[in-house]
Design brief:
Family: Belongs to the pseudomonas-type ThrB family.
Distance between the termini: 38 Å
Protein name: Homoserine kinase
Radius of gyration: 20 Å
Mean pLDDT: 95
CATH class of the largest domain: Alpha Beta
Number of domains: 2
Enzyme class: transferase
Strand content: 5-15%
Shape: globular
Pfam family, one: APH
Keywords: Amino-acid biosynthesis, ATP-binding, Kinase, Nucleotide-binding, Threonine biosynthesis, Transferase
Bound molecules: adenosine-5'-triphosphate, L-homoserine
Length: 318
């Protein structure tokens, strides 16, 4: 529920003349989302989304916006960034970087069935393949280095049991990232935050992935693990739902076959995906930022998922 930087229709009236979008007719803050300030923006030309970036810099943003452009040009279903008359995708508004992208139709499918998981798996594989020739490089800014930076900031807030879990898992992930199998994993641009609320459906038809602002260059398998940990679980327990896992993985494998190294790395990678979001939710919970409307997500949700991925073998990749 975040609008960190309020914007009014008057604010954009003049600002938007640099874009080929005609006059703005409506602007409405979007409550959902916790990282940026998002607004539905209607103009004479159509419906768009205006995002003001609260944490990412002008230097970091071209990777994300140009990746969306690159993917949209290769028929991967993502919002298309709108360039201004000077061809710029990122323009200052209220002193912060801002962008306008096309609005995806439909809505998020928060109770997915296997059919939805299959759509996501196939599109995710197509997205990975389409990103192979993307020329810009930027690491996953919420990868292992960020986990190492963040762990000491949240440890003091944890129970003895959770502090032990966090220290032990960080040790495990450091060793995993250094092993030969990990080094054989396929890498490229990944979304890295492909939760149910970052995908649009119209019924059973997937209309697009969005919110690429945690994307980076990382292992494709990390992306699959993050996605499975949100789309294919029982929300109360974190236990994997085999039918949805099979639907997503088989659809992905049918587009881009998984490798033997990925098969070996699958369980540790599911743990990595759970750790990453447990850490970011702990960080947001204990070091909250000012916002007009911000409801941080529950860290316990990913503590449960991490414990479950440690305790229970997941269905194989293929
Ligand atoms: N291109 C788009 N088309 C349609 N709706 C969009 C689009 N981009 C954002 N939205 C709407 O805005 C909401 C917030 O967007 P987004 O998820 O990018 O924000 P965020 O702050 O990065 O949130 P979080 O990282 O917590 O998912 C989405 O849940 C969706 O309802
Ligand atoms: N998708 C993240 C929030 C944005 O990164 C979460 O649910 O913790």
């Amino acid at each position: 529920m975040a609008v960190f930087t309020p914007v009014t229709l008057d604010d954009v009236n003049q600002w938007i003349t640099q874009f080929p979008l005609g006059k703005p007719t409506a602007l409405k803050g979007i409550a959902s989302g916790i990282e940026n300030s998002n607004f539905f923006l209607d103009t004479e030309q159509g419906e768009y989304v205006l995002t003001i970036f609260e944490n990412l810099s002008f230097e970091q943003l071209p990777f994300y916006l140009q990746l969306m452009r690159h993917l949209a040009d290769r028929q991967v279903l993502v919002p298309a960034p709108i360039p201004n008359h000077r061809g710029e995708l990122i323009v200052a508004l209220h002193g912060k970087p801002a962008a306008i992208v096309t609005k995806l139709e439909g809505s998020s499918q928060m109770a997915p069935q296997p059919v939805h998981c299959a759509e996501v798996g196939a599109m995710l594989a197509r997205m990975h393949l389409a990103g192979r020739d993307y020329p810009l490089q930027q690491p996953n800014l919420r990868g292992l280095d960020w986990w190492n930076d963040t762990t000491p900031k949240v440890l003091p807030h944890l129970s003895d049991s959770n502090a032990h879990l966090l220290r032990a898992e960080m040790h495990f992930q450091e060793a995993f990232a250094g092993c030969d199998t990990y080094k054989q994993l396929q890498t490229g641009p990944v979304h890295a935050d492909l939760f149910r609320n970052n995908v649009m459906f119209d019924g059973e038809r997937l209309t697009g992935f969005f919110d690429f602002y945690f994307a980076g260059c990382d292992t494709w398998l990390f992306d699959v693990a993050v996605t499975v940990n949100d789309w294919c679980i029982d929300l109360d327990t974190g236990v994997l739902d085999v039918a949805r896992v099979r639907a997503l993985l088989d659809a992905y494998h049918g587009v881009r076959p998984f490798t033997a190294a990925e098969q070996t790395a699958w369980q540790p990678m599911l743990r990595a995906g759970a750790l990453r979001f447990w850490l970011s939710r702990l960080y947001d919970y204990y070091q909250p930022r000012e916002a007009e409307m911000l409801t941080p997500h529950d860290p316990t949700h990913f503590e449960r998922i991490l414990r479950e991925r440690i305790a229970t073998l997941a269905p194989k990749l293929f």
